[in-house]
Amino acid sequence: MKPAAVLPLPTGAAASRAQPAGPARCLGLDPGLNRTGYAVLELTPRGPRLVEGGVLKSNPDDPLSVRVAEIGGGVRELIREFAPRLIAVEQVFAHGRNYASSLKLAHCRGAILLAAGEEGVPVEALAPTAIKARACGNGRADKAQMQRSVSAELGLKAVLEPNDVADAAAAALCVFGRLRAVAA
């Protein structure tokens, strides 16, 4: 099989020119190998507006390489459909008791970074405690607090479900000020 042509990624000034001319959007991602939450926020004169939120799933019966490819492919599709100018994603921290799950999460995050890099979209990595502190004023907020706070900030009548979507929206809200600068 003949390999496909590989195009160089835009860098420096070329990368900024590669930004879409449409609405200023941010893609927030809550990485997970089983479920990766996503939220697309758009800059409006009234503030951030939720365009779409959902979950990318991988089949737990598939090999790790296939599952990681499924998540990466899903992120690539989101980038192509919504043309975000910035991606916000949670950082991965390895903890002694959850080391194996942290490694799986790192694989998923790697697929996200690869998709973003191939599509020329800048990524901002955020600590989970920073996301929670921005959304709730408390870096140790629980899932229910996150869902209520993010839903209220976005002016939604219902609470964002599942919590993966609320977490993704919270990540996007963290970088929304930077999105304003990118859109200017």
From TrEMBL:
Keyword Metal-binding set for record: yes
GO cellular component, one term: cytoplasm
Gene3D superfamilies: Ribonuclease H-like superfamily/Ribonuclease H
Keyword flag Nuclease: yes
EC number: 3.1.21.10
Cofactor note: Binds 2 Mg(2+) ion per subunit.
Active-site residues from the entry: 30, 90, 164
Keywords tagged on the record: Cytoplasm, DNA damage, DNA recombination, DNA repair, DNA-binding, Endonuclease, Hydrolase, Magnesium, Metal-binding, Nuclease
Cofactor entry: Mg(2+)
Binding sites annotated in the UniProt record for Mg(2+) 1: 30, 164
Subunit structure of this chain's protein: Homodimer which binds Holliday junction (HJ) DNA. The HJ becomes 2-fold symmetrical on binding to RuvC with unstacked arms; it has a different conformation from HJ DNA in complex with RuvA. In the full resolvosome a probable DNA-RuvA(4)-RuvB(12)-RuvC(2) complex forms which resolves the HJ.
Recorded family membership: Belongs to the RuvC family.
HAMAP family, per the entry: RuvC
The protein, known as: Crossover junction endodeoxyribonuclease RuvC
Organism of derivation: Alienimonas californiensis
Gene name linked to the record: ruvC
